[in-house]
């Protein structure tokens, strides 16, 4: 087993991990980032716009990638799995499994392997809305811009067409997984979140019609590098949407699913309403809510701007039934309009479920003394002073708060390293 | 906030609901999932979301003449989808108990009958009363010879004691129902309608158990209630036939197959169906106890009384046939005590739902509210059912406004 040494180990290469790493490295400490996927960027790389400024996250990610790339003190490993954490603050030892990429550093990004690849599988980057090849990069902004081969998707009889197509000898299907031991003074747990599985909310009809989608899918449909190049159309037939229902608290604030408020879905929906309204001046958006939670001046102002749009209907009352009309294929959402006092059924082209954030850390194998609270978020106790949870590993928070949390974690990690090394 | 509504909470009412099995009441955060998943609520001013906030706020007056708590069949679709574990099904059951007090006079009996502390009294009072009456008749004891229950309690004794008990129970219930009906008319501003047609439709609905059929998560409630309901009818027929055979045809009990066969058939089929229905009810309550609630004392008292009636009646018959006099007569006595309890507690126990749910279901048709269903809205201009129409739902409309102002 090979060994590496670093001051701070950051687990997770999304916005929280990238920020922790760059902040610590720019203060003079060595950092290693571990990312389980083949590319950095995490959830933010899948977003179309940030709220409330409505600017694209690709811009901030580009800056962060550059900070990583140009800083000798940062190294990163993709396709990794943390197998074991031992030791204590100042001298942790972490066993990391490196899964093979099957494409080496000779890759120039020419795309020949993709063209030669005969296999198509659902594209996880686009939330399964389209297909990708077994050889792929996520998008033109992928970092590292080095292709990867999803060997689990490969057909054994394809005769290694990708290897033959690669002029540079970059495809190496014989690569093996290996394990490295990384010694680190402090660890930042920036493992992020995943969307709650909407299929588990059986009354909201997810899976019964392609036009019942989640907010994460909506973000991909609206993104320029998404399956529709940013044109918002309904997945079943590509029809332009004239009426969209947004269903808040789809699985959040619900003890049958996620008992907590995911904190970002109200703003995410308001933001997505602006996507629809921008593309279709006559389209209508319905937002069904229990409470609209947009704390703070800037968020409140954003909410008020969306609310003032007369094509946006805010209805107090949680949607508890969603179904597809067999005749037209349209989606019918049912709620009680609490303020008016009656059950209503609204027929829409597309229904977006504002599903919440489930912490990835809730399903990870971690040392037993890293405690997980009843909602699945990491609680770092006093006994593990060198491990800090960051961003959505700790709380359901938006990008701005993740970045703040990352800066704080970088400082704490630096202090731990300075004190104990 | 010049137009603010001042709410006058009745805290005793809130405590009463909580004590009667609505412990989870305060967990409700008014998301209205319950209302949407409920298949038995009308679309206009639906329940149970509004009842939850009224009860939380102690708005006792809102429940005066409120048919909705009685339209609830406690299918518990609401509780199973409730994101907060607020158990609207249980809470509405507790509110129903509270409203029985308003209508079944004297209301204090509702509290006495449904108070856990007094349960020995609930059994002791009818037991002592019957023992005294039987002693006065000179038949209290275990008679010699072949087991014949009329030696213990003569046919005339049964008729003279049990008929007035039943008349008492039914009369109190009907008086309460009339008061409730008048209150419903007033509270909802409905003064005319098709009474005959509504009654006919309601009876048809009850006979077919249509409402229970639309229950989602506890579909077995249909089966259990259906069994209990029709077993009561079968047992009622058996009783009527008994009267016919003894008093009119001059036959003598005990009946058996070949001698008064119809009495035995109706009686035994009824008893078996009743036992099966009650067991099914108990089972479904235990099965979903955590999510839906195991039920309150109010529920279990009725289950206990009916269960004991069925079981003791069936066992008494077996003991009689087996000729075990020392067991047969005491079991028969228990049977009489519980049948008597069922009659006199009829308007004060959960069984009072016969009157109040019946009236509420009828009123729903009478007021025309049932027919006003939510239509799918394909158009831009959303027409939401009016909150407070001149003809119905006035009370609900006011609550809606109060909530708006509260925010």
Describe this structure in words.
The complex is a heterodimer of chains A (421) and B (407). Chain A is of the alpha/beta class and 421 residues long. Chain A has helices spanning 15-26, 57-70, 112-116, 161-165, 215-222, 265-279, 297-307, 399-420, and strands at 2-11, 31-34, 74-77, 80-88, 91-98, 120-122, 131-133, 135-136, 148-149, 178-189, 193-195, 212-214, 243-250, 284-289, 312-316, 321-324, 331-337, 342-348, 350-355, 357-359, 371-372, 378-379, 387-389. The relative contact order of chain A is 0.17. Chain B folds into two domains: 11-103 and 389-406, Orthogonal Bundle (Fumarate Reductase Iron-sulfur Protein, Chain B, domain 2), CATH 1.10.1060; 108-362, Fumarate Reductase Cytochrome B subunit (Up-down Bundle), CATH 1.20.950. Chain B is built from 19 helices and one strand. In chain B, α13 runs antiparallel to α14. Chain B is elongated.
Write the layout of secondary structure elements.
The complex is a heterodimer of chains A (421) and B (407).
Chain A: E1 2-11, H1 15-26, E2 31-34, H2 57-70, E3 74-77, E4 80-88, E5 91-98, H3 112-116, E6 120-122, E7 131-133, E8 135-136, E9 148-149, H4 161-165, E10 178-189, E11 193-195, E12 212-214, H5 215-222, E13 243-250, H6 265-279, E14 284-289, H7 297-307, E15 312-316, E16 321-324, E17 331-337, E18 342-348, E19 350-355, E20 357-359, E21 371-372, E22 378-379, E23 387-389, H8 399-420
Parallel strand pairs in A: 1-2, 1-10, 2-3, 10-23, 12-19, 13-14, 13-19, 14-15
Antiparallel strand pairs in A: 4-5, 5-10, 6-7, 8-9, 11-20, 16-17, 17-18, 21-22
Chain B: H1 11-19, H2 33-37, H3 49-57, H4 68-71, H5 77-81, H6 88-103, H7 108-113, H8 119-137, H9 149-152, H10 155-188, H11 195-208, H12 210-213, H13 220-248, H14 261-287, H15 289-292, H16 297-322, H17 325-344, H18 353-366, E1 376-377, H19 394-406
Helix pairs in contact in B: 1-6, 3-6, 8-17, 10-17, 10-18, 11-18, 13-14, 14-16, 16-17
């Amino acid at each position: 087993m090979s060994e590496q040494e670093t001051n701070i180990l950051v687990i997770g290469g999304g916005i929280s991990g990238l920020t922790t790493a760059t902040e610590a490295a720019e203060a003079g400490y060595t950092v290693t980032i571990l990312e389980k996927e083949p590319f950095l960027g995490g959830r933010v790389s899948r977003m179309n716009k940030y709220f409330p400024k409505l600017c694209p996250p690709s811009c901030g990610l580009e800056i962060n990638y550059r900070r990583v790339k140009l800083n000798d003190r940062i190294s990163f490993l993709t396709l990794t799995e943390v197998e074991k954490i031992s030791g204590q603050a100042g001298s942790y030892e972490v066993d990391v499994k490196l899964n093979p990429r099957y494409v080496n550093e000779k890759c120039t990004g020419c795309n020949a392997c993709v063209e030669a690849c005969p296999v198509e599988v659902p594209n996880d980057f686009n939330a399964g809305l389209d297909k990708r090849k077994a050889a792929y990069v996520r998008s033109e902004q992928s970092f590292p811009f080095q292709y990867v081969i999803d060997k689990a998707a490969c057909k054994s009889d394809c005769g290694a067409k990708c290897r033959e197509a690669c002029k540079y000898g970059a495809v190496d299907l014989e690569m093996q997984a290996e394990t490295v031991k990384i010694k680190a003074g402090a660890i930042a747990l920036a493992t992020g979140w995943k969307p709650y599985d909407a299929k588990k909310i059986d009354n909201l009809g997810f899976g019964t019609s392609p036009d019942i989608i989640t907010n994460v899918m909506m973000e991909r449909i609206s993104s320029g590098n998404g399956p529709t190049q940013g044109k918002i159309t309904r997945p079943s037939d590509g029809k332009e949407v004239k009426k969209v229902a947004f269903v808040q608290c789809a699985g959040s604030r619900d003890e049958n699913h996620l008992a907590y408020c995911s904190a970002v879905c109200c703003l995410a929906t308001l933001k997505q309403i602006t996507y629809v309204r921008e593309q279709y001046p006559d389209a209508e958006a319905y937002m069904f809510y229990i409470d609209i939670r947009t704390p703070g001046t800037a968020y409140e102002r954003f909410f008020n701007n969306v609310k003032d749009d007369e094509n946006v209907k805010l209805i107090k009352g949680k949607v508890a039934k969603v179904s597809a009309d067999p005749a037209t294929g349209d989606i019918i959402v049912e709620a009680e309009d609490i303020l008016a006092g009656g059950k209503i059924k609204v027929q829409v082209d597309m229904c977006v479920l504002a599903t919440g954030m489930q912490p990835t850390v809730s399903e990870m194998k971690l040392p037993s003394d890293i405690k997980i609270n009843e909602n699945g978020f990491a609680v770092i106790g006093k006994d593990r002073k060198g491990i800090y949870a960051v961003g959505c590993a700790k709380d359901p928070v938006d990008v701005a708060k993740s970045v703040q949390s990352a800066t704080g974690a970088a400082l704490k990690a630096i202090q731990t390293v300075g004190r104990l090394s | 906030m010049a137009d603010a509504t001042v709410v006058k909470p009745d805290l005793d009412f809130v405590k009463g609901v909580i004590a009667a099995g609505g412990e989870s009441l305060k967990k409700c955060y008014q998301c209205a999932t319950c209302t949407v998943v409920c298949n038995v609520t009308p679309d206009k001013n639906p329940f149970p979301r509004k009842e939850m906030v009224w009860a939380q706020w102690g708005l006792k007056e809102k429940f005066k003449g409120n048919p909705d708590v009685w339209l609830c069949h406690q299918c518990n679709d609401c509780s199973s989808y409730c994101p907060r574990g607020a158990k609207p099904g249980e809470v509405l059951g507790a509110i129903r108990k509270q409203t029985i007090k308003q209508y079944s006079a004297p209301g204090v009996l509702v509290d006495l009958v449904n108070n856990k502390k007094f349960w020995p009294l609930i059994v002791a009072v009818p037991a002592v009363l019957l023992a005294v009456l039987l002693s006065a008749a000179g038949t209290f004891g275990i008679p010699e010879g072949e087991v014949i229950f009329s030696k213990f309690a003569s046919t005339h004794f049964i008729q003279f004691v049990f008929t007035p008990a039943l008349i008492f129970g039914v009369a109190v219930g009907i008086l309460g129902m009339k008061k409730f009906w008048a209150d419903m008319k007033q509270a909802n501003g409905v003064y005319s309608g098709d009474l005959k047609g509504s009654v006919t439709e309601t009876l048809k609905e009850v006979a077919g158990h249509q409402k229970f059929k639309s229950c989602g998560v506890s579909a077995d409630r249909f089966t259990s209630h259906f069994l209990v309901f029709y077993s009561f009818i079968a047992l009622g027929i058996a009783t009527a036939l008994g009267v016919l055979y003894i008093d009119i045809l001059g036959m003598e009990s005990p009946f058996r197959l070949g001698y008064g066969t119809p009495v035995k058939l109706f009686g035994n089929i009824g008893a078996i169906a009743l036992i099966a229905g009650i067991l099914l009810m108990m089972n479904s309550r235990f099965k979903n106890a955590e999510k839906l609630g195991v039920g309150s004392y109010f529920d279990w008292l009725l289950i206990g009384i009916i269960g004991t009636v069925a079981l003791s009646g069936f066992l008494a018959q077996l003991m009689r046939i087996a000729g075990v006099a020392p067991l047969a007569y005491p079991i028969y006595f228990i049977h009489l005590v519980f049948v008597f309890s069922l009659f006199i507690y009829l308007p004060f126990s959960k069984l009072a739902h016969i009157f109040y749910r019946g009236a509420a279901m009828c009123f729903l048709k009478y007021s025309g509210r049932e027919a006003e269903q939510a239509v799918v809205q394909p158009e831009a201009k959303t027409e939401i059912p009016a909150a407070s129409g001149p003809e119905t739902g006035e009370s609900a409309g006011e609550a809606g406004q109060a909530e708006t102002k509260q925010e």
